[in-house]
Amino acid sequence: MKHIISALVENKPGVLAHVAGMFAARAFNIDSLVVGRTEDPALSRMTIVVVGDDKVLEQVRKQLAKIISVVKIQDFANQHVVARDLMLISISALPEKKPEILSIIEMFKGKVVDIGQKFVMVEISGPEEKIEAFINVCRPYGVKNVARTGTIAMARQAKPGS
Amino acid sequence: MKSKPIPADSSSAKTPLKTGAQIIVDTLVEQGVDTLFGYLGGVVLPLFDKLYDGPIRIIIPRHEQGGCHMADAYARASGKVGVVIATSGPGACNLTTGLATAMMDSIPIVAITGQVRTELIGNDAFQEADTTGITRPVTKHNCIVKDVKDLARTIREAFYIASTGRQGPVLIDIPVDVEIAECRPDVSKKIDLPGYKLAGKGHTRQIENAAKAINNAQQPLLYVGGGVVSADAADELRQLADKANIPVTATLLGLGSYDQRKPHSLDMLGMHGAAYANYAVQECDLLIAVGARFDDRVTGKVKGFAPNAKIIHIDIDPASISKNVGVDIPLVGDSKKILPVLAQKLSHKERKDWLKKIAGWKAKYPFRYDNNAAAIKPQYVIEEICRQTRNQAIITTGVGQNQMWAAQFYKFTRPRQLLTSGGLGTMGYGLPAAVGAQIAMPEQTVIDIDGDSGFNMTMTELATAVQYKLPIKVAILNNGYMGMVRQWQELFYNKRYSASSLLNPDFANVADALGAKGISVRKKSNVPEAVKQMLEEKMPCVVDFKIVPEENVWPMVPAGKNIHEMNGLDILESLA
């Protein structure tokens, strides 16, 4: 099962190496890992997507918490969460296929960020399934290049239904 | 490199400017360091220059690995933080085995390494190594200090991290220009560790649950590890065990936390543990683990471990709970605080049947060996050492057969008495550990019970012992083999002794050449006299006991088996 774990870490050199090294040393599987600054310049946030059962995830959380420069851990399992990936994708687009491709992009609320004779580059964000679906739809036209950020996430503050 | 004075902020304007090297020395003194183990090198010259004038005693090992083991054993024997200093590159690399040893056994060490000048880092400079990169997996924490203003705080934090929670080694890498740079030192004694939280004194409701479980148990068993030693909780453990009338078995690192001469001691459990301890684990209805981590050498096949038992686990490290074996009642916190609170809620139970059953196993399968042969048996040497030291010596060991026999046949009476590399299993630990322990405990008898192969690995540290006139003793159980791997080759590889024997030097001559006392013992009848002579020696003394070459350690749980499925019980029975 996939879990999204969010870790607030000290914004210091070596922290990423501590975290990545721990995952490697303990043979945990990382699906994606995103690091970025937060509202507090002393802290960064790592969003880590990990694959494993409950026992593995319990160890992941505890071992992460043991790293001195990791300040706080949140596991978003069983929580209402907004999770998003960002992708840049370059698709083969021959002139006669362009209208068709552009309508697909619109359908997925993607944004054309670069366009040429035989290609379009698209920026698209959303839940991972949407990104995957978009890639699948584009595949018949020819996917030239993909760059993805991996998942970032935040718990919803409004209660569902409110 | 710039080394401009820094205006006072957290420091007092009145504080004079000091170099980084001076700040290191001052902060070590402030942290109570009176002895350190250090090997000089190019980029730590400024630091050693300041140490030259300081009050700290420097012990120079012959190799940085030895220095790190010395700091480790100094910490194990005294309960204080061990300090080791090494230069950049090869010096730092040589620390890694010692750091990994300390990490696996949760031993508090602060290691300081020099680094090349900040501007050269990453340029493959002379004697440059990525020290924080190399040591990250073998330290509790490490960091590089690039600003002299951070130096004092970082060193304080290192001592705090090393000595609190689940203890462990911390390494600080310091570029040489930071040693030379000046600032007004931070005298605030502040530490800034927002991500470092210590476990408390146990969840009140879980303590209630644990007390209820213990009071209801018919066949409870305490299984105690090195955590009891680091928490300094041996008295609290004894009081609990005595009050509730519960037998105690210990891991290798837990030996001594419960006096092995007491009737309720079931000695060591696990792969080469006592049959009665392993049977007790398998039959108990409640297992109370204290400061132990369910290591594979203890559990054997995890699924079949303590199959009838509810498990209570008291540990300071939340990550140790349910890591290998599922736990019913977790108690995260300091066992020194938890045990007395728990003990208060316990009542005395007779447990006649349970104790009788255990007494039966004890009578049937004690640790035994055949001492009728003419050759010297290793177990006999250890029993003789134990007898003549009246169970009071500090024992260090190598790894393998010598270590297991020491654990089986020396009966330990107090914590911090057996110093041994349990988790990592570092051959060569015994001799430098004896040096570190003797430095920490000058009044006590310190004996390294070693194997010939392990002694070969670090015997150069005998010169260190001679330099500081340390009366350490080394009892080499010399069977001419890497004994434990030879035992495995005998049992599992059809006696094909591939690469398991070395051509040894004459160890007594080596000892004499290094300025120590060397004794060779070939006859069994000479063992008591040789042990006596060894104990009376004022200089380091090496006794080379030529033991029977192919003796095995029994009992033995083969890898992957349940811990009641021991080999060698027939041998123990036949010796009755």
Written description of the protein model:
The complex is a heterodimer of chains A (162) and B (576). By secondary structure, chain A is α+β, with helices and mostly antiparallel strands. Helix content of chain A is 28%, strand content 42%. In chain A, strands 5, 6, 7, 8 and 9 form a five-stranded antiparallel sheet that branches. A four-stranded antiparallel sheet of chain A has the order 2-3-1-4, with helices on one face. The mean pLDDT of chain A is 94. Chain A is built from four helices and nine strands, in the order E-H-E-E-H-E-E-H-E-E-H-E-E. In chain A, strand 6 (111-115) and strand 7 form a beta hairpin. Chain A folds into two domains: 2-75, Alpha-Beta Plaits; 82-154, ACT-like. Chain A, domain 2 (Alpha-Beta Plaits, 2-Layer Sandwich). Chain B has 576 residues and is of the alpha/beta class. Chain B folds into three domains: 18-183, Rossmann fold (3-Layer(aba) Sandwich); 204-364, Rossmann fold (3-Layer(aba) Sandwich), CATH 3.40.50; 378-554, Thiamin diphosphate (ThDP)-binding fold, Pyr/PP domains (Rossmann fold). Chain B is built from 23 helices and 20 strands. Chain B has a six-stranded parallel sheet with strand order 3-2-4-5-7-6, sandwiched between helices. A six-stranded parallel sheet of chain B has the order 11-10-9-12-13-14, sandwiched between helices. In chain B, helix 1 runs parallel beside helix 6 (151-163), helix 3 (64-78) runs parallel beside helix 4 and helix 8 packs across helix 13. Chain B is globular. The N and C termini of chain B lie far apart (74 Å). Mean pLDDT of chain B is 96; it is low at 1-8. Chain A binds chain B through residues 9-10, 12-14, 17-18, 21, 25, 55, 58-59, 62-63, 65-72, and chain B through 132-133, 136-137, 140-144, 161, 193-196, 317-319, 321-323.
